[in-house]
Amino acid sequence: MPLTPTARDLVADRRARLRRVRDTVTIDADTHPSDPASYPPALAERVARDPNYWQGRPVTGDELLRELDHAGVDMALCWQNPAVTVYGRDTEENLDRLLAANRYIFRLASDHPDRIVPGGWTDPKALGVANAIRLAQICVEEFGFPIVKMNPAQNAYPITDPIVAQTVDAIVALGAIPTFHFGGDGPYTPPEGFASIAARHPDHPIIGVHMGGGGSHFVEGDATYVGAREIGLAHENIFYILSAKRDTHIESALITYRLAGPRAWHRLAIGSDLPYGRPTWNFGGMRAMLAALADGSGSNDPRLRENPHLFDGDAARDVLGRNFADLIIAADSRLLGEATA
């Protein structure tokens, strides 16, 4: 089924907009706004009265936009917050709940096309494979989403499960980008598992959100961080969003990918993981880190001492927005049935 007329217009407009701003845009490539109308009563009460942070504390689309303004961030990739979408045992009810969460992202992007890049979300375990594929089709063909994400860690299913492969195949067939929470915060997304998904469609992009981070233990997570880096260099269809990842590992990954050349460097972007992280903090820190790397003396990494001009030019612009803009421009071209070269 082709894109609906509404979806086609949204995709064409988004591509045209990103083409105009790609050289200057700053994009937060990982945020999770939620519809306050969907908060269960107990959650709404806690949001209103509890000043302490907790994992998944929701933010609305309006709150997201205000923080982007404070952070000096032009646009954000948005997908639903899994902490707000509570599943039950009935797969049809789960489909309805996750569809409603995706629909909120669709409305937010429709209302703010100059600020929001929408991303879809599906779940082959909670919905069943047939419903997961059906939801992916709605996200792409009716909502015009260029990306559809799964989170094996949050929903406790191995990334190597056949239900994942079937869903990935369907997303690829739609022309969208299969995307995964890829972190060391559980046993469900090991580097070799993510590598097997990338190898399944070597000529089609796949996104790994967190690049092996995602809340892993500082010491125990090191192996996943390094493994993520290695498979990303080995599989040129892997695109990484650096979010929920230790700053020291972000710096090391930036240097590694810069040294590996343009084909690697142009597969990195930055995200805050809002509400699990803050755009103000992440983009303030990232700008400072990139400036220090460009100075050539802002790191004790021996590779930078040996290559003091490694980050000359406009390298910062690539990871702050241009790389991700180009990824979405190519995805939108596929959705429109046009060449992506």
Automatic annotation (TrEMBL):
<dbReference type="InterPro" id="IPR006680">
    <property type="entry name" value="Amidohydro-rel"/>
</dbReference>
<dbReference type="Pfam" id="PF04909">
    <property type="entry name" value="Amidohydro_2"/>
</dbReference>
<dbReference type="GO" id="GO:0016787">
    <property type="term" value="F:hydrolase activity"/>
</dbReference>
<dbReference type="InterPro" id="IPR032466">
    <property type="entry name" value="Metal_Hydrolase"/>
</dbReference>
<protein>
    <recommendedName>
        <fullName>Amidohydrolase-related domain-containing protein</fullName>
    </recommendedName>
</protein>
<feature type="domain" description="Amidohydrolase-related">
    <location>
        <begin position="27"/>
        <end position="244"/>
    </location>
</feature>
